Amino acid sequence: MIFYASMAVAGWLLLVGLYGIVTSRHLMHLCLCLTVLQSATYVMLTGIGNRRGASAPVYAGGVPTSAPVVDPVVQALMLTDIVVEATVVALLLAITLQVQKKTGSTDPDNVSVMKG
Amino acid sequence: MELLQITMLAMAALFGTALVFAREPASQAVGISFYGLVLALMFFVFQAPDVALSQVVIGAVGLPLMVMLTLAGLKRRRE
Amino acid sequence: MRRVSRLTVFFAGELGLAALLTAAALHEPGPTSERDRYRVATTAPSVDLRQVTDAVSAVNFDFRGIDTLGEEFILFVSVSGVLVLLREPEAEERGLIIDAADAGRDMKPTSAMRGWMVGTVGPKVLFGLYIVGHGALSPGGGFQGGVILATAPMIIYLADGFKVFRRIVKFRMVEIAEAAGATAFLVLGLLGILAGREYLTNVLPLGEANTASSGGTVVAISWATGIEVCAGFVLVMYAFLQHVLAKREAAE
Predict the structure, then answer these.
(1) 3-class SS at A58?
(2) Residue C237 CA: distances (Å) to CA of B70, C65, C157
(3) What is the DSSP letter of B24?
(4) Number of helices (H) and strands (E), helices first, in chain A?
(5) Eight-class DSSP state of C161
(6) Across the interface, which of A28, A46, A97 has its CB nearest the CB of B43?
(7) Do A17 and B78 touch (CB under 8 A)?
(8) pLDDT tens per residue, range A102-111
(9) Interface of A with B in 24-63 (CB under 8 A)
(10) Where does the pLDDT of residue C78 fall: very low under 50, low under 70, confident under 90, or very high at 90 and above?
């Protein structure tokens, strides 16, 4: 049940993020809609790794290895992803600053990449 | 716990939609910080403390700082 | 293409995507024994085989270490991209980087707030080092601790302005630290080859579970990653601040 709910939320965030990117009128709004897209993948991965009634995959303090835990592989995928995507968003924001310096506008419709 | 998980999922969907429909980057700057917090709470409720740790710091400190600095840079160039 | 026709094409595509996503979600098998293989292969063995009680760190730095190496280098390259894009060579030469607060245009926080902010720098650094160092025991590791460590210079900037920030955070040292962190990860992987096995094999002494010295290369790689992530974020912040605070007179 939680599985299908998280798939639905992930799908909804994906579609809304895509809509935001396509209808965006400001390059920074575009970058932040990309963040929403990324969080759609996080929600989906959480839903995949989740198990009913299981706890966190940490055995510190003498928890026996037979205790039910959620999947640590998807968590490992997610946590490096979060940190790395933050720097990629920083790169996109730096590109936005340079685009404004070169062309004077931040509207994606007015920025044509290939000229002449 | 299941109820909490469904609530956090619903909140994530709601705030994600609100973030996309806020057209001005200035109003998105605060929204993204709050959305990061909601996501971190969701990871915590789904038994993923490592992910919640990195999401809290990135989403509440790192990303809003960069967004604010970019906004300041854009405004300054337009003067 | 006109905007309306663009939107029509987009919505058609979105409906198709939504249909495909629904079909895929309905076909997904629940937690069956097929999909459980990864969980079974990484949770109990991380304590039994590697003496690491935090299974996520074991997956990140040991079982799936080569993936983390790739992701760390994505971070490295993004930070280099930001530094290249935001350089202001003319302003650098003429020494025109000033603090906007000095120009009287910005608000400086009150002394009560500044005292509070400066007081939290020490605990932040300590907490960040704790999270990095205990990555093998409890939730934590290089990535989380590195970002927490990087918030300390941010607070210094917010409390005291760019001049103090630049005095405390030397650009050259942070650059060297970032490169050192990335290289250390590579070199620690080579230890496995030197021991006659594969790249990134865990060859350092494993210790006992639940102690601070358990895990072998997991702890060492965690430290290397923590230094690299912290330095990367501080560099990004430095580049943004320099770009935003450079005086306009450079163009006149």
Answers:
(1) strand
(2) 11, 28, 10
(3) S
(4) 3, 0
(5) -
(6) A46
(7) no
(8) 888 888 877 7
(9) 25-26, 28-29, 32-33, 35-36, 39-40, 42-43, 46, 49-50, 53-58
(10) very high
Residue C252's pLDDT is 38
Which residues, 6+ apart, have CB-to-CB distance to B32 below 8 Å?
A: A32, A35, B19, B59, B63, B64, B67
Dihedral sign (CA B58, B62, B68, B70): negative
- Minimal-distance CA residue of chain B relative to C233: B62
Residue C247 has pLDDT above 90, yes or no: no
* Cα distances (Å, whole numbers) of residue C167 to A78, A111, A114, C232, C238: 36, 39, 42, 18, 12
pTM of the predicted model as reported, rounded to 2 decimal places: 0.89
First to last CA, chain C: 39
By CB atoms closer than 10 A (0-12, 13-18, 19+), residue A3 is: middle
Q: Which residues lie closer than 8 Å to C75 by C-beta, 6 or more apart?
A: A83, A84, A87, C228, C229, C232
Average of per-residue pLDDT across B58-76: 87
Instruction: For residue C251, give the amino acid letter.
Output: A
Query: Rounded to an integer, what distance in angstroms lies between the CA atom of residue A19 and that of residue C9?
Result: 12
Residues in contact with A104: Cβ distance below 8 Å, sequence separation at least 6, in sequence order: none
What percent of chain C is modeled with pLDDT above 90?
33
Counting other chains too, the contacts that C198-206 makes at CB distance below 8 Å and 24 or more residues apart are C199/C66, C200/C62, C200/C65, C200/C66, C200/C69, C202/C50, C202/C62, C206/C50, C206/C51
Q: Which residues contact C112 (CB under 8 A, 6 or more apart)?
A: none
